[in-house]
Each structure stands twice: as C-alpha cells, then as structure tokens.
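Re-run with default settings, no changes from the original entry. Doing this only to confirm the output is reproducible before filing.
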Amino acid sequence: MPRPSVPPARPALAAAALAAVGALTAAAATPAAAHATARRHSPARHVLLLSVDGLHQSDLAWYVARHPQSALARLVGDGVEYTHAGATVPSDSFPGMIGQLTGGNPGTTGVYYDDTYSNALLPAGTTGCAGVRAGAEVDLTEDLDRNKDSLDAGQGLSGLPGSILNMTGDPRSLIDPSKLPVDPKTCKPVYPHAYLRVNTVFDVAGRAGLRTAWADKHAAYEILDGPSGNGVQDLFAPEINSKAVGYPAGGDWTKDNAATEQYDGYKVRAVLNEIDGYDHSGTRRVGTPAVFGMNFQSVSTAQKLPSSDGLAGGYAAKGVPGPLLAKNLAFVDQEVGAFLAELRKRHLDDRTTVILSAKHGQSPTDPAALNRIDDGPLLDGLDAAWKSAHPGAGDLVAHAVDDDAMLVWLTDRSPAATDFAKAYLLARSGTGTGIDGGPRPFTASGLRTLYAGAAAARYFHVPPGDPRVPDLLGVTRYGVVYTGGKGKIAEHGGAHADDLDVPLVVSGAGTAHGRRVGAPVRTTQIAPTILRLLGLDPRGLDAVRIEHTRALPTR
C-alpha cells in the first residue's frame, strides 16, 4: 500500500536530526577507529621479520591480485608497501640477511657471500701460526657443522626429524672449530660472529634489555649474534643441507620441494611458540621476543628446481609463476596467516609490526633467457693460461663462487694479474644449455661487465687491497646461471633486476594503513626501521652511522 505522505521537516529540525544521526554514527565508529588510530601511532612492542628467499615484488603483486582475501593481501593492505625495494649486491643469503639486520652493505659488513676468502686470515686447521702465509677460505655454509648430514647439525638428538624443536638455541656449539679460519694474531679460530665487522639489531636490542630470537638455515647464522657474540638469545638453525629423512636417499631438504616445505614448517612452529611466549622449543616460558622471525626457503627451491612433486618449477612465462611456485606462494601465505592469527589470539596484534621481505630474488624469471654455463672449465683455463705465461707460478685462482654472478679471489692481487684474468675471461666463448636442454652459445664467459682489481674495490666502496673484497666481480648477462649440470633453472647472487627487486612490506603497529611508496628503497633500511619502531636509536648500529642508512617512512 502507498506510504502516507509526510510533511517536509523544517530546516532547523532537519539539521538537528542529521546532527543526531551523525553523532550516533560517530559514537558507533569511535571504538574501532580509536583502536586503529592508537595502534598506528603507538610504538611497537614486537617486530616480526619474515624473509622469503627468492621472492620478488612481482611475485607478491601477482599473488595478491589473484587472492585479495589472502593473508599476504591483508598484510599489504594493513601497512606500507615499498614497491621498488632493492636487495644487496651480491644478492646472496648472507649479505642479504646481514644487510637487513645491520643496515650495511658488504663493503661495510665485510661479508660478501656465504663462501668467500680473506687475505688476512690463516687456513682452517692452522695450529702453528708463525710463518704461515695469510689467505684463507671463509666458509659460512653447512660445511662448518659438526655433522652436516644431520638436521640438528651434529647435536645428537634422537627421533629426528620430529624432535628437531629440541635443538639448541646456541648453534655455535655445533660448529666444528677445526673448519674455521684462524686469526694470525691470536692463532685461534674465527667464529662467524667475530668475522662480522659491525653490530646487529639483535646487539642493540639486547643491550636495551629486550629479548631476541631468530630461525635460519645453518648453524653459521650465529653470525647474527654480532661482534658481541650474544645478540640472539634463541637462535634455531636446523641444517637445510642435511639428509632429508623420508625423501629420496642422498637428497637434502632443498632437492624436493615438499621436503623444503616440511623444513620451513619446523621454523614456523618455532616462531609460533615464540609468539606464545615460549622459547623456540615450546618448553620454556621466556616471553615473546621484541625482535624475532625466520627465513623461508620453499619459494627459492620452487624457483630453482626444474620440477618437483609432479609440478613444473620456475616461471611459466616471464614473470608468471609456474604451478610449483604458485603452490609455494600459497604455502607462504598460509604460514603468514598462521602468524597473524596467533598474534591476534595472544592479543599482540596491536603491539606488533610485521616486516616481510627477502634476502634476495632469483634470476631469470624469463625461462626463455636461461643459459646454464659450466664455470669450472673457465676457471681451470684461467689457471692454465696464467701458469703458461708465468713458468713456475702456481694457480692464479685462490677462491671463486659463481651462481649468477662471478666472484673471484686471486693469489696474485697485482694490477698485472687482475688485468690478465679480466682479459682472459672476457675472451672466452663456448656453449651452454637452455631451458629445454638444447645448446646456447655464450661469449665473454657469459659476462656483461667485469670489474677487476681497484675497480672491484671501488664498486664496493672499499680501498684497493682490502683483505676481503673479491679481485674480480663479474656481472653476468641476463639469464646466465653458472652450473655444471641441468639441475637448476635459476640462481641468485648477481645484480640483475630479478636478483634485486624484492618485496618490502611494513605492517601493523606504528605504520600507516594501505600506503604505497614508489620511491626506491633498500633492504638495508629494515635495520634502522626495526629499532625506530621499538623506540630505540637507529644510530646504535655501526653500519647506520657509517653508511647513513635511513629508516623507512612508515606513516
């Protein structure tokens, strides 16, 4: 039936009515709005840092666009997203993680890769130091473990892998000192934390009386303790390159992507225990750390493996995740969702800032660009040419690490030697293999640019002759991966956009809501940002003072 007519309200009465409605609406909205405002402007009590090896900003954008209700989408929408963040060069796990937690690049921190060389230290195992020539490999990989085949790095736990959460929170005890380089001044082994030239976020937080924890992939990540040796109070470091129990014999946790997910799951459980106020094992109540987090490995193996678990690895086309990678993005999303849910459950969500980033990207994201080159014959050829030109001389190459970059340390660091090496490598041509296994020609050893001697030192902003800087830094042509087989379709370490363009999201307490920052930023800015969020002075970090690293804009 028709509604009865209503006489028009007088202007004064109408205004009063609207004001009343507005007041009611504001009153209803105020508690939620006030809560959100308070959360944004109050300092964080906790910072949870999540580093996803291999993840690109483009991967995050691809996933969020297709899953707008996902945990990753909520994380992005609830904070500040920096869409042009860059990782360190070299873009390797150790300089990448150290950069995030010190604010410094390799020239400042002194850590260029996970396996490098120092012209100031003596070889591992040296006991009588008098008269020994300096020059030693500095290995920060699983090779330092007392037992690198065991998930607990040699602790001797029974019931592995299920008992791995009982692993010690002090993995320094699991490093074999006979495998460490030796300081010629003291004739004692140099542990990873003592090799780092600058302090870490954990050092600064610990001095302020705050609890710290971290989970990563090797015992050598005790380097994050910093020079103090005690920055991380609870460091959970199950060995990723140990034998994966329950998977094909001889393979480690990176050779099967399902194994990598299982491995990451142990660290996820550790972080959940820490959110609940326990140590990583979940057996000792210690309080939720002020600074804590973990790295994920499963995205990285999904990018590198040609296939796993019946799914094709890598990218289906340029920048388009294939089925295995898409599955792992969903896995990371699920685990991030578990963290967010646990923070809410424990009423910590309004006091916690979550930072999402990556130690490095992975290259190439265009499968058609892949060119796998065996670097062994290139370096062997360099040694042979040097000895032929210099009768009686030994090998020129002291140490090299090549993934999708080339870092070489020489036994002769003179300009004549570095020029010789540069000329030789840039003159090499040959044949690699493409994504389909077919032949692909290469020239200049697959390099686009080769910095040698003083030029390499300038690249890293250190003086020529610095004992740690590589004598040669080779930037490869896009798509080049140095490997002797066909077991990899991507790598990292280089200076391509695919190596460097990583996500960076700062979300939660002390941040703006739904803000996008398009200006270039660096992952080294994470370190001072963590301290500022916690109300600590970023200048407490050595590298921040040296490099003038700025905290990220979060409001």
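The two ends are 55 Å apart (CA to CA). DSSP finds 16 helices and 27 strands in the chain.
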